[in-house]
Amino acid sequence: MSLLVADCPRCGTKDITFDVGNQVQVATRFNWQMVLEIFCVCRACRHPTVFLVSQNHHHYAETLKAGLSEFGSAINDLVKVERYIGIQDNSAEVPPEHLPENIERIFKEGSACMSIGCYNAATTMFRLCLDLATKSLLPDDAEGLNNRIRRNLGFRLPWLFDNQILPEGLRELSSCIKDDGNDGAHEGILSKEDAADVLDFTFILLERLYTEPQRLEIARQRRAARRNGD
Q1: Which stretches make up the DUF4145 domain (predicted)?
Q2: How far is CA 25 from the centre of its chain?
């Protein structure tokens, strides 16, 4: 029987031994790192937990593919325990492709908040995605560009539309972002529909800014490779 030493989220025991059962690979990072969900049973409370773990070194690939439950010893050297699978993993919105790492991380946090009904928190995270993405679009100097526009997302978006930096077709969707920078999140009054509007606008804008250009670049590289006979 393979073993995992981790904190138990069910009974709170620290550094307890788990019996390792089945596994499912859920992702691959950096073209080598396997990410797995593994079913484990705590030896203190006998309750099961599914952990999200990632491969520690590329040399361990064959061992992980053969099955951690077949290893027959402690697997902590083979994998890093990232967290346990919980309610935050329920039906979360998948972010657009090719996002910067910091924006992707924040989008996932907003999506997790959305999935458990924390709509004020979700909106705050999606607004932060928009804030980071649109700040980089501002020129160093331009007519009408003042500190209020630089600081405030609600004022920045109209300026970007008016100056043809953002596509005009997205202006109507952007109406969910208020000019005063206050969507009601600090008062805790946002509804599911409010948060969904901000999510829709965030997703589409991030696709336009990051996903579509990168897909075009990948297609251009493939075409160049074909022409060069690679």
Answers
A1: 111-202
A2: 18
